[in-house]
Every structure is written in structure tokens, then in C-alpha cells.
């Protein structure tokens, strides 16, 4: 049972929390059955005010369900208590002490955690340099000073692994004044940090560990998956249920335990960022997914793991394709791997991952979750089955045959690990909001960046505002752009120019 006090409305007669309940879904159903009508927002009045063309594409049910704001769900301190009941059930389900829902994604939840732990004054936070762009946005928003922790760079694979506990200890010894540590695990490639050992190091210094576990919402519900951050001793853990669960986009949960993070302050920081008009569909999907996982999660995720392992073997047998596994897991690499993330190296085909992703989308109507200069990644979820697995396998088989006709991939000049570590000359906030100008990319080395430049997916910035650009990173961005790298953050879509501090 959760150590956090649960609302009485979700307890059964014997005092045990009833995980078969779904308070938000039940409230939604009751609203319909009781024929309630609100002279309040939303103004579409359960879809009555929506034109037929819009209703035909989106569906009438979506608008019919968008109604509980008028019943008080537009504020986290609503009268009915549906949201707090659902959050308490979520906390109990995963053995956290507290949980709160966000309809603005893990991007909001992680910013709230950053503000709660280090916000105000001249706050500082240890952050792994492979952090998601939302964390950089949090730095800009908050004015916090990042103290970067180096991830482990694999020169053979050209990807980063989470930092080791030893690297974390070194960071704390260098910057003991920082308020906490924020790491990303799993990474977008499915690799995981040794969270338990890292948490122990943080707690030895009396500081909290925040885990951006956006790709790990499913981890608490099957013991063959990597260790869930709360079980490993993290103080705050943020998950995106839409990624590896079954929620809508923007559905996120922030979990909390221990006494190193002020929960009231965390909730207030979330309220500062949260919309006061949340979409009840997002909340209700979180509620329903939690109930589904408690009742059937082990069975569903076990089947997904079996399917993923079978698919991994089949893809690995295709000429030119290598499914990555062992090379991601060794002493100087990652601690664990989520096998539902099927990372496929296509370099033996003589093509790039960007080309493969484009071909799959155009010719087989299949989208992959990530592509880079030599890899594509397919995510397997609880919803996949033999039919969808065969569709992917058939598409990859055809891709292998078609690859010989591709143009030679553009050469991407990869910086060395040292060249990727740009000097941090200004606070991200000061650089972003300061006096800026756009200069030709060729003139950027030596200048302080005033924007973040982020290959997406996976959304990890190569350049953070306040960092001094160098020749190697500029050449990497130029050649990457020419080879098909997607850089959606750049103010200049063509990347002919870049914003720098004047």
C-alpha cells in the first residue's frame, strides 16, 4: 500500500485501496448519464457547436467527452476530488508516495521539478548534457545555472550512454553547491543508467535525484523491464504515458518520494506552469491506463517483450541490418536496456538512417520513432501483435532490397567527444533573452549561441544557449543538415545563419 494518504472515496469497505476504480472515467460516465449541461466553457457544448467537417475528422465522441471542465476539473483544487483520487491511485499502483498528473507533457513536469528543487535566486542544478530540449527550456525559463555532467560517449557507435555513478560522484565533488541532479533514463535509444547507484551517491551528498523517465512509464509493471526509478531510490520521477503506455499525447505523471523534495513547493511549481483548463480526455486516459496496468500489465507487457525479442531475432537475420543489444551493455556503456526499443543499425546497407526513415514513410507508410546517421528505432508497445510485427519485418525486407538504388548518403562530419563539450560562457536564460543577432554559419565559431539547435528526434540539443560555438560542431550541423538531419528549433530553417549574442 502507498505510504501516501489516499482519499477515502477510493477505499473499499476493509480500508484497502480499490485499484479497480477509475474516478475520472467514472465521473465522465456519470456526467453523461445524468444529462448534465453547463453554461460554461467549453463553448462547443459537447460537440453541438462544431461543424460537420471537423466532427467527421475528429469524431463526435471526442467533443462529447470534453465536458468536465464545467464540473470543476479546470482547477486542481476542484470540488469533486476526482483528480486527486486518480492521482492517489496512481501513486499506490507504483508504490510512490505522491503522484500528480499533467496535461502538458513531461516537458511541464520536468520544469516543475527543476523549479522546485533549485529555482529562485542563483540556483544551480547538475544536469546530464544529453538532456532533452524541454530541460534546456526549463533552464531558459527559470534562469538556473546548469552544471553539466558528461554522459559517456561511444566513439564506435557515435551515441551517448548515461553517466556512470563515478562520473556523478566527480560532479558532486566539483559542484557540491548544486541543489540536485537531473538525469535522463531510459535514453531515447532505450539504454538505462544505474539509477540505484547514482541515487546512493546523490543521497550521500544529501541531494535529491530527479529522473526524466519519459520513456519509462511501463517499467513498474513488469520485472523483466529495467528498474523503475522509484524502486531504485530516485526522489522525483517524470514519465510520459503516451510514449510507452496507452495514454494520449501530453499525458504525463510526476512521482515523488522521500523528504528531499518539498512536495507542496513541487505542486505549486506545477500549478505555475499548468493550464487551468486541462483536457479531461488526457486525465481520464491516464486513469484508465493505470487501472489496466494494475489488472493486466504483467501479461500485456510480457507478451510485448516476447514479440519484441522474436522481432529482434528476425530483423537481425536480414542482410545489412544489425539489431543492437550487447554493444549497448558493457561496463563502460549502459547499465540496462529496454528491449521494447528495437534499435537497428543500417550502416552495412551503405545508407543513412535518415534515408531509411524517409523510404519507409513514403513507400510503406511506416513511421519509425528515431533516425540518425546510421540507425532507425522501432518502438514495440503492448498494442503490437504478430500482424504489426510482420508488417515492419516485411517493410524492412523491402527496404534492404531498395537500398542499393539510394543515392550515396551525405557525409556527416562527427565531432570528437571533446569537441562536443562546448564552453558554457553565459546562463542559458541570459543568452536567449539577451541582445542577439543572426550571423552566417561560417562566422559562428567563437560566438556565444543564443538559440538551441536540436536534432529531432530524439530531441537532445547539440547547442544550448550560452555555449561558445566551435568549428567542429558547426561543421557537424552543416553536414548533418545536408544529409537529412531534422533541426526544427533553428530560427533559420535552412541553417544558413544562426542566432548568437551580439
Offer a concise description of the structure.
Helices cover 37% and strands 13% of the residues. The chain has helices at residues 23-33, 52-58, 60-65, 82-94, 105-118, 133-142, 165-174, 195-204, 241-244, 263-273, 280-316, 353-364, 386-402, 417-420, 428-433, 471-482, and strands at residues 98-102, 124-128, 145-149, 152-154, 159-161, 181-184, 191-192, 209-212, 236-240, 252-256, 322-323, 336-337, 341-345, 370-371, 375-379, 436-440, 497-501.
Evaluate the radius of gyration.
Answer: 23 Å
Low-confidence stretches: 1-9, 69-77
- β content, as a range? 5-15%
The CATH class of the largest domain, by name, is Alpha Beta
How would you describe the shape? globular
Number of strands: 17
User: Can you tell me the number of structural domains?
Assistant: 3
User: Major beta sheet, specifics?
Assistant: 7 strands, mixed
- The helicity comes to 25-40%
CATH fold-level topology of the largest domain? Aspartate Aminotransferase, domain 2
Q: Please, what is the CATH homologous superfamily of the largest domain?
A: Type I PLP-dependent aspartate aminotransferase-like (Major domain)
Query: How far is the first residue's CA from the last residue's CA?
Result: 57 Å
Treating each run of at least 4 consecutive H or I residues as one helix, how many helices?
Answer: 16
Q: Based on helices, strands and strand pairing, what is the structural class?
A: alpha/beta
Mean pLDDT: 89
Assign the CATH architecture of the largest domain.
3-Layer(aba) Sandwich
Major sheet: arrangement of strands: 1-10-9-8-6-2-3
Amino acid at each position: 500500500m502507498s505510504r501516501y494518504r489516499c482519499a477515502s472515496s477510493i477505499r473499499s469497505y476493509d480500508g484497502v485501496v480499490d485499484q479497480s476504480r477509475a474516478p475520472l472515467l467514472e465521473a465522465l460516465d456519470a456526467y453523461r448519464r445524468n444529462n448534465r449541461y453547463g453554461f460554461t466553457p467549453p463553448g462547443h457544448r459537447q460537440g453541438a457547436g462544431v461543424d460537420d467537417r471537423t466532427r467527421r475528422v475528429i469524431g463526435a465522441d471526442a467533443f462529447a467527452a470534453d465536458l468536465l471542465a464545467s464540473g470543476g476539473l479546470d482547477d486542481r483544487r476542484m470540488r469533486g476530488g476526482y483528480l486527486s483520487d486518480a492521482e492517489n491511485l496512481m501513486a499506490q499502483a507504483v508504490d510512490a508516495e505522491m503522484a500528480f498528473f499533467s496535461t502538458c507533457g513531461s516537458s511541464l513536469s520536468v520544469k516543475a521539478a527543476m523549479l522546485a528543487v533549485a529555482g529562485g535566486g542563483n540556483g544551480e542544478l547538475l544536469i546530464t548534457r544529453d538532456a532533452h530540449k524541454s530541460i534546456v527550456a526549463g533552464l531558459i525559463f527559470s534562469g538556473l545555472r546548469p552544471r553539466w555532467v558528461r554522459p559517456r560517449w561511444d566513439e564506435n557507435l557515435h551515441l551517448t550512454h548515461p553517466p556512470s555513478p563515478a562520473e556523478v560522484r566527480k560532479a558532486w565533488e566539483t559542484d557540491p553547491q548544486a541543489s540536485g541532479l537531473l538525469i535522463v533514463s531510459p535514453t531515447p535509444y532505450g539504454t538505462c543508467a544505474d539509477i540505484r547507484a547514482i541515487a546512493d551517491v546523490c543521497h550521500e551528498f544529501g541531494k535529491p535525484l530527479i529522473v526524466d523517465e519519459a520513456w519509462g512509464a511501463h517499467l513498474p509493471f513488469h520485472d523483466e523491464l529495467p528498474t523503475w526509478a522509484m524502486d531504485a531510490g530516485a526522489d522525483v520521477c517524470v514519465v510520459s504515458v503516451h510514449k510507452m503506455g496507452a495514454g494520449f499525447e501530453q499525458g504525463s505523471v510526476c512521482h515523488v518520494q522521500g523528504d528531499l523534495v518539498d512536495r507542496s513547493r513541487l505542486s505549486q511549481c506545477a500549478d505555475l506552469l499548468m493550464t487551468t483548463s486541462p483536457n479531461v480526455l488526457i486525465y481520464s486516459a491516464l486513469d484508465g491506463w493505470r487501472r489496466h496496468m494494475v489488472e493486466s500489465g504483467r501479461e500485456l507487457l510480457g507478451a510485448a517483450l516476447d514479440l519484441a525479442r522474436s522481432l529482434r531475432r528476425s530483423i537481425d537475420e536480414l542482410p545489412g541490418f544489425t539489431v543492437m543489444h550487447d554493444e549497448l551493455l558493457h561496463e563502460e556503456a549502459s547499465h540496462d536496456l529496454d528491449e521494447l526499443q528495437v534499435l537497428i543499425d543500417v550502416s552495412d546497407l551503405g545508407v543513412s538512417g535518415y534515408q531509411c526513415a524517409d523510404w519507409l514513410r513514403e513507400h510503406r507508410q511506416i513511421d519509425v520513432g528515431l533516425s540518425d546517421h546510421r540507425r532507425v528505432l522501432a518502438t514495440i508497445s503492448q498494442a503490437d501483435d504478430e500482424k504489426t510485427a510482420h508488417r515492419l519485418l516485411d517493410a524492412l525486407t523491402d527496404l534492404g532490397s531498395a537500398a542499393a538504388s539510394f543515392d550515396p548518403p551525405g557525409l556527416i562530419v562527427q565531432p570528437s567527444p571533446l569537441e562536443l563539450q562546448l564552453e558554457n560562457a553565459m546562463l542559458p536564460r541570459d543568452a536567449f533573452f539577451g541582445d542577439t543577432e543572426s550571423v552566417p554559419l561560417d562566422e559562428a565559431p567563437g560566438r556565444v549561441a543564443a538559440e538551441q539547435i536540436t536534432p529531432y528526434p530524439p530531441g537532445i540539443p547539440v547547442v544550448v544557449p550560452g555555449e561558445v560555438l566551435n568549428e567542429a560542431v558547426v561543421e557537424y550541423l552543416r553536414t548533418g543538415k545536408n544529409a537529412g538531419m531534422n533541426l526544427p528549433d533553428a530560427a533559420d530553417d535552412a541553417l544558413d545563419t544562426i542566432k548568437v549574442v551580439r
